[in-house]
Amino acid sequence: MLVKQDGVFLLELDSSQKNRFLVKLWSKKGGDNRTYVFALYHCIMKPKNDLLLRVAKGEKTERPPVWLMRQAGRILPQYRALRATVAGFKALVSQPELAAEVTVQPVDELGVDAAIIFSDILVIPEAMGLDYEMVEKKGPWFPTTIQNSNDITKLRSGESAAEHLEYVYEAIRLTKKSLNNEIPLIGFAGAPWTIFAYMVEGGGSKTFSKAKKMLYQEPVLSHQLLEKITESTIAYLHTKIAAGVDLVQVFDSWAGLLSPSQYQEFALPYMERICRSIDQVPKIVFARGAQHTWPAFQNISADVIGLDWTIRAKDARKLLGAEQVVQGNIDPCILYAQASDIQENTIKMLKDFGGHHIANLGHGVYPDTPLDNVRVFVDTVKNFSYENS
């Protein structure tokens, strides 16, 4: 793994050995050769099961890889038991040992082809100086919201914000040790518009009308906030990559609330900047409910485009092309059905996409989903073969 010591990154091939490859990745005064070093690192430390990485890079594979958004969570009894021992959700996220343990739980339980670090998209506004609380059964709540230029000026941004998230990077390092290079580890962040929406609205909402009002009434101010969020997210993801993640995913959970023109102005350019800033690892973008934006996504600098369950595979292929790697997109609620129905619908999805596809749900798995049904979905994908289909 990559270990930071006094501004220098060590490529540690084996923590039990003394031999280390030492290289200084960057300094404020000198050049930046992090891309070369990270490429070397990910080449040397390629996971034994690299199916997800191969598909993300556009390679043909024997079957699609499978993982689930929110796979580390309340569908697992061991998660619920661990969750009961701490004060709340944020206590799990902020303690690296616990976050690493939760990350690995679905790997052991379900045999998925990738782990995704257990964290939250709202660590970014918190790192920027806007604290939030996770209210049980209600979701996130910000005691203070962004309302004017003074509020934005007070926020940290870029590396000065990202450096407040060391607990996330340590969780990544611990998880990489636990995974023992068996499967890839995914890091993630919220897209700037989605983070903006929470910081202005103050919590979850069906409409995010306060956030959208700022876009219309204060467009210059909105861009200033989006700029700071983007700078912080870029620094955050780069540091996650340095800590060891093999892919990154950017979630635009509230993309569907914006009109096409709003998305083109206030969302897509910032998503593109994040993608362009990263060339060390594959990138996945997921804009939920944003079918009206997908023509623009044809040119985004991402390797994989995530799809929700509201678009048919053949329509996605017609729009994005047969070679575009996609992720998704079965309805999460199909996992409430009978096992035979889950198998039938899963196989249909796999055949309809026809390769260059990462099997996943069209959104996160719901907390009350029967665990056995999740296993049916995962096992159906793992038993699928393009050659025999």
Q: Level of helix content?
A: 40-55%
Radius of gyration: 20 Å
CATH topology of the largest domain: TIM Barrel
Instruction: Give the oligomeric state.
Output: single chain
The arrangement of helices and strands along the chain is: EEEHHHHHEHEEHHHEHHHEHHEHEHEHEH
Number of strands: 12
Distinct helical segment count = 18
Based on secondary structure, the structural category is: alpha/beta
| Count of separate structural domains | 2
Mean pLDDT score, rounded? 90
CATH class of the largest domain: Alpha Beta
Spatial order of strands in the largest sheet: 4-7-8-9-10-11-12
Distance between the termini: 39 Å
Q: What ranges have pLDDT less than 50 throughout 5 or more consecutive residues? A: 13-36
Q: Shape from CA axes?
A: globular
Describe this structure in words.
The chain is an alpha/beta fold. It has two domains: 1-45, no CATH class; 49-382, TIM Barrel, CATH 3.20.20. It is 45% helix and 13% strand. The protein has 18 helices and twelve strands. The strands form three sheets. The protein has a seven-stranded parallel beta sheet. α5 (96-110) packs parallel to α9 (166-179) and α12 packs parallel to α14 (268-277). The longest helix is centred in the middle third of the chain and has 25 residues, at 219-243. The chain starts with a strand and ends in a 7-residue tail after the last helix.
